[in-house]
Amino acid sequence: MNHKASLLLFCLAASLVGIGCGHGFKLVTPDGFVELEDQEEYAYRATTAQGVVMSVRVEPNRPRGNLSFWTDAIDLKLRNIGYTAAEARDVKTKSGAVGKQLRYTRTIYDRPHIFWLTVFVTDADVFVLETGGDAREFDKAKDEIGKAIEGFVPG
Question: Is the pLDDT of residue 116 over 90?
Fold first, then answer.
Protein backbone atom coordinates (compact mmCIF):
# COMPACT_ATOMS: atom_id res chain seq x y z
CA MET A 1 0.00 0.00 0.00
CA ASN A 2 1.36 3.43 -0.90
CA HIS A 3 1.78 6.40 1.45
CA LYS A 4 -1.24 8.24 0.03
CA ALA A 5 -3.51 5.27 0.68
CA SER A 6 -2.26 5.14 4.27
CA LEU A 7 -3.01 8.82 4.73
CA LEU A 8 -6.52 8.35 3.31
CA LEU A 9 -7.31 6.06 6.19
CA PHE A 10 -5.50 8.20 8.72
CA CYS A 11 -8.04 10.97 8.56
CA LEU A 12 -11.49 12.45 9.22
CA ALA A 13 -12.50 15.98 8.67
CA ALA A 14 -13.72 19.23 9.91
CA SER A 15 -14.58 22.63 8.61
CA LEU A 16 -13.79 25.86 10.37
CA VAL A 17 -15.63 26.28 13.68
CA GLY A 18 -19.04 25.50 12.33
CA ILE A 19 -18.59 27.43 9.10
CA GLY A 20 -18.63 25.56 5.83
CA CYS A 21 -15.47 26.01 3.81
CA GLY A 22 -17.10 26.09 0.41
CA HIS A 23 -17.06 22.35 -0.10
CA GLY A 24 -20.71 21.65 0.62
CA PHE A 25 -20.46 20.67 4.29
CA LYS A 26 -20.20 22.05 7.79
CA LEU A 27 -18.28 20.53 10.65
CA VAL A 28 -16.94 22.03 13.86
CA THR A 29 -13.20 21.54 14.25
CA PRO A 30 -12.63 19.66 17.51
CA ASP A 31 -10.68 21.22 20.35
CA GLY A 32 -7.01 20.33 20.15
CA PHE A 33 -6.90 20.16 16.33
CA VAL A 34 -5.41 22.68 13.90
CA GLU A 35 -6.18 23.05 10.20
CA LEU A 36 -3.56 21.97 7.70
CA GLU A 37 -3.36 24.25 4.70
CA ASP A 38 -2.90 23.39 1.01
CA GLN A 39 -4.37 19.90 1.22
CA GLU A 40 -5.01 19.05 -2.43
CA GLU A 41 -6.44 15.57 -1.79
CA TYR A 42 -8.88 16.67 0.93
CA ALA A 43 -11.69 19.19 1.21
CA TYR A 44 -10.39 19.73 4.76
CA ARG A 45 -7.69 18.29 6.97
CA ALA A 46 -6.62 18.88 10.57
CA THR A 47 -4.28 17.29 13.11
CA THR A 48 -3.44 17.21 16.78
CA ALA A 49 0.11 17.83 18.00
CA GLN A 50 0.28 14.08 18.70
CA GLY A 51 -0.54 13.10 15.12
CA VAL A 52 -4.24 12.21 15.23
CA VAL A 53 -5.42 13.33 11.81
CA MET A 54 -8.91 14.27 10.65
CA SER A 55 -10.10 14.95 7.12
CA VAL A 56 -13.07 15.16 4.82
CA ARG A 57 -13.11 13.88 1.27
CA VAL A 58 -15.96 14.88 -1.01
CA GLU A 59 -16.43 12.90 -4.21
CA PRO A 60 -19.19 12.97 -6.81
CA ASN A 61 -21.82 10.29 -6.24
CA ARG A 62 -20.92 8.58 -9.52
CA PRO A 63 -21.85 5.95 -10.25
CA ARG A 64 -24.88 6.99 -8.28
CA GLY A 65 -25.02 4.75 -5.25
CA ASN A 66 -26.69 4.73 -1.86
CA LEU A 67 -25.10 4.59 1.58
CA SER A 68 -25.00 0.79 1.57
CA PHE A 69 -23.22 0.67 -1.79
CA TRP A 70 -20.52 3.18 -0.82
CA THR A 71 -19.85 1.72 2.64
CA ASP A 72 -19.59 -1.78 1.16
CA ALA A 73 -17.17 -0.53 -1.51
CA ILE A 74 -14.99 1.23 1.06
CA ASP A 75 -15.06 -1.73 3.44
CA LEU A 76 -14.02 -4.21 0.74
CA LYS A 77 -11.13 -2.02 -0.34
CA LEU A 78 -9.83 -1.51 3.19
CA ARG A 79 -10.05 -5.19 4.08
CA ASN A 80 -8.23 -6.07 0.85
CA ILE A 81 -5.32 -3.79 1.74
CA GLY A 82 -4.87 -5.13 5.24
CA TYR A 83 -7.15 -3.20 7.59
CA THR A 84 -8.98 -5.25 10.22
CA ALA A 85 -12.65 -4.38 10.61
CA ALA A 86 -13.58 -3.81 14.24
CA GLU A 87 -17.14 -2.46 14.06
CA ALA A 88 -19.74 -0.83 11.83
CA ARG A 89 -22.40 1.41 13.31
CA ASP A 90 -25.21 3.62 12.12
CA VAL A 91 -24.72 7.33 12.69
CA LYS A 92 -27.27 10.13 12.84
CA THR A 93 -26.08 13.72 13.20
CA LYS A 94 -27.81 16.54 15.06
CA SER A 95 -28.87 17.90 11.65
CA GLY A 96 -30.59 14.58 10.86
CA ALA A 97 -28.03 13.28 8.36
CA VAL A 98 -27.85 9.49 8.36
CA GLY A 99 -24.51 7.81 7.79
CA LYS A 100 -22.46 4.72 8.55
CA GLN A 101 -19.25 4.58 10.55
CA LEU A 102 -16.70 1.89 9.79
CA ARG A 103 -14.04 1.28 12.44
CA TYR A 104 -10.74 -0.47 11.77
CA THR A 105 -7.44 -1.32 13.38
CA ARG A 106 -4.04 -1.80 11.84
CA THR A 107 -0.51 -2.14 13.11
CA ILE A 108 1.91 0.42 11.67
CA TYR A 109 5.57 0.36 12.68
CA ASP A 110 4.71 -2.18 15.41
CA ARG A 111 2.17 0.21 16.98
CA PRO A 112 -1.62 -0.32 17.03
CA HIS A 113 -3.58 2.33 15.14
CA ILE A 114 -7.29 3.11 15.02
CA PHE A 115 -9.19 4.38 11.97
CA TRP A 116 -12.79 5.58 11.72
CA LEU A 117 -14.42 6.32 8.38
CA THR A 118 -17.86 7.88 8.56
CA VAL A 119 -19.75 7.98 5.26
CA PHE A 120 -22.66 10.23 4.28
CA VAL A 121 -24.30 10.16 0.85
CA THR A 122 -26.43 12.76 -0.90
CA ASP A 123 -27.79 12.63 -4.44
CA ALA A 124 -24.79 14.68 -5.60
CA ASP A 125 -21.90 13.74 -3.31
CA VAL A 126 -20.26 11.12 -1.12
CA PHE A 127 -18.70 12.55 2.06
CA VAL A 128 -16.07 10.45 3.82
CA LEU A 129 -15.02 11.74 7.22
CA GLU A 130 -11.74 10.05 8.07
CA THR A 131 -9.90 10.03 11.35
CA GLY A 132 -7.08 7.97 12.71
CA GLY A 133 -3.88 7.70 14.61
CA ASP A 134 -1.85 5.79 17.13
CA ALA A 135 -4.31 4.01 19.44
CA ARG A 136 -3.03 5.73 22.63
CA GLU A 137 -3.37 9.20 21.15
CA PHE A 138 -6.60 8.46 19.32
CA ASP A 139 -8.24 7.32 22.55
CA LYS A 140 -7.50 10.74 24.10
CA ALA A 141 -9.17 12.57 21.18
CA LYS A 142 -12.12 10.27 20.47
CA ASP A 143 -14.70 12.20 22.52
CA GLU A 144 -13.96 15.43 20.63
CA ILE A 145 -13.97 13.51 17.34
CA GLY A 146 -17.38 12.06 18.21
CA LYS A 147 -18.78 15.54 18.93
CA ALA A 148 -17.50 16.80 15.58
CA ILE A 149 -19.12 13.91 13.72
CA GLU A 150 -22.43 14.52 15.54
CA GLY A 151 -22.34 18.11 14.30
CA PHE A 152 -21.55 17.28 10.66
CA VAL A 153 -23.89 18.76 8.05
CA PRO A 154 -23.45 17.44 4.48
CA GLY A 155 -24.22 19.91 1.71
Answer: yes
